[in-house]
């Protein structure tokens, strides 16, 4: 399309933030209208935390997670370089996103997944978009090792977050937050898995500060699950386990970069239990109306823990806090449906239905 660089035509992070991204006139833009997700003020969460808390609801991206922000840039650049096929290792959302953007671009996509560890909604997406799905008898870290080797042989373009185009796209979430708040928040909390997203946010905040678009930089706080917490424990975890499958990672690819971003910002890494994650998930859904997948509830659980432990070193009162909720709750329906046993149907009359509604 002519003059596309001059006007920001349509939706999508490349249209909105082209000047900050590694794209040119020669880049064919592959987009599904990702980004521009809502920043939702959460009054009940704010009350419990003693700060003004916003949720950046990344579950509202086209495939239901923040991965789409990076994928639009990574797939556009791969296409520009002449790639015929994409490959990724995934805990689920990267494969859902890669499959959708590959379909859009008209190229093939192979996804390498840890067998039996992918939430059903994410698996359904990869299949629906026509990706070649290969399950391995290993964990995510094994899958990523294999993908790196296949990518090195030149047959496939890797679209994991070790691809810098992914990180470039993902930093646009930080731009959106500053554009909306008029400044950076004081604290930014997010789940920490392969650590690409925290790295991307830190890069976005610092780029915007250099441009004079914000005054400060937020403390970056990464939240890991108790038994999948390599960054917290400062050692590789061989067999990471958590209900939050998107952060079930024992050896993060962007570990060093994320650690530096956390240290430079005066931030921290905290851990939460699976039980705290599931409690935070249902509390957020039932009090703020925001349904997120377990990994995305981890930062909410982390914030509640910091508040409970009165960690005023990290969270002095009356600050502005943004919490990224990375993926939609519908990605992982079994987590919730397991708690819900279908009651027997009642007679089709008002009395029986009223009795059923009020029954405790
Ligand atoms: C990928 C993912 C994460 C982890 O992000 P990293 O960049 O790997 O740290 C967290 N939550 C969800 C829903 C994800 O899909």
Structural write-up:
With 360 residues, the protein is α/β, with parallel strands linked by helices. It contains 15 helices and ten strands. A six-stranded mixed sheet has the order 1-2-10-7-8-9, sandwiched between helices. A four-stranded parallel sheet has the order 5-4-3-6, sandwiched between helices. Helix 4 links the parallel strand 3 and strand 4 (108-114). Helix 3 (67-80) runs parallel beside helix 4, helix 4 (93-105) runs parallel beside helix 5 (120-128) and helix 8 (172-181) crosses helix 9 (196-210). The chain is globular and about 65 Å long. Residues 1-8 have low confidence and may be disordered.
List the helices and strands and how they pair.
Layout: H1 13-17, E1 39-41, H2 43-49, E2 52-57, H3 67-80, E3 85-89, H4 93-105, E4 108-114, H5 120-128, E5 132-136, H6 140-152, E6 157-158, H7 164-170, H8 172-181, E7 187-191, H9 196-210, E8 219-225, H10 230-233, H11 255-264, E9 268-272, H12 274-287, H13 294-308, E10 320-325, H14 333-337, H15 350-358
Parallel strand pairs: 2-10, 3-4, 3-6, 4-5, 7-8, 7-10, 8-9
Antiparallel strand pairs: 1-2
Helix pairs in contact: 3-4, 3-7, 4-5, 7-9, 8-9, 9-11, 12-13
This protein binds pyridoxal-5'-phosphate.
The site of pyridoxal-5'-phosphate has 18 residues, from helix 9 and helix 13.
In a nutshell, what does this entry contain?
With 360 residues, the chain is of the alpha/beta class. It contains 15 helices and 10 strands. Strand 3, helix 4 (93-105) and strand 4 form a beta-alpha-beta unit.
């Amino acid at each position: 399309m002519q003059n596309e660089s001059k006007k920001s035509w349509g939706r999508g992070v490349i249209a909105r933030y082209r000047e900050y991204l590694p794209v040119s006139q020669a880049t064919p833009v592959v987009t599904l209208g990702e980004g521009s997700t809502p920043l939702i003020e959460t009054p009940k969460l704010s009350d419990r935390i003693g700060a003004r808390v916003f949720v950046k609801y990344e579950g509202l991206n086209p495939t239901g997670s923040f991965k789409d922000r990076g994928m639009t840039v990574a797939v556009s650049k791969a296409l520009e370089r002449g790639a015929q096929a994409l490959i990724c290792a995934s805990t689920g959302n990267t494969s859902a996103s890669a499959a959708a953007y590959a379909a859009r671009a008209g190229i093939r996509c192979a996804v390498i997944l840890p067998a039996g560890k992918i939430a059903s909604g994410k698996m359904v997406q990869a299949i629906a978009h026509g990706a070649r799905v290969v399950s391995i008898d290993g964990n995510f870290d094994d899958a990523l090792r294999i993908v790196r080797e296949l990518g090195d042989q030149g047959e496939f373009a890797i679209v994991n977050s070790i691809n810098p185009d992914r990180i470039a796209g993902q930093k646009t979430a930080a731009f959106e937050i500053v554009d909306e708040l008029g400044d950076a928040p004081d604290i930014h909390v997010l789940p920490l898995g392969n650590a690409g997203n925290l790295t991307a946010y830190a890069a976005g905040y610092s780029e915007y500060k250099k441009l004079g678009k914000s005054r400060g930089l937020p403390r970056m706080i990464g939240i890991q699950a108790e038994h999948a917490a390599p960054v917290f424990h400062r050692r590789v975890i061989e067999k990471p386990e958590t209900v939050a499958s998107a952060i079930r990672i024992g050896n993060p690819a962007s570990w060093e970069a994320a650690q530096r971003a956390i240290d430079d910002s005066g931030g921290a890494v905290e851990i939460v239990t699976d039980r705290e994650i599931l409690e935070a998930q249902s509390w957020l859904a039932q009090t703020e109306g925001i349904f997120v997948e377990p990994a995305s509830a981890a930062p909410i659980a982390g914030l509640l823990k910091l508040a409970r432990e009165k960690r005023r070193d990290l969270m002095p009162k009356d600050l502005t806090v943004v919490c990224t909720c990375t993926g939609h709750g519908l990605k992982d329906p079994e987590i919730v449906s397991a708690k819900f046993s279908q009651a027997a149907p009642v007679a089709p009359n008002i009395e029986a239905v009223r009795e059923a509604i009020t029954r405790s």
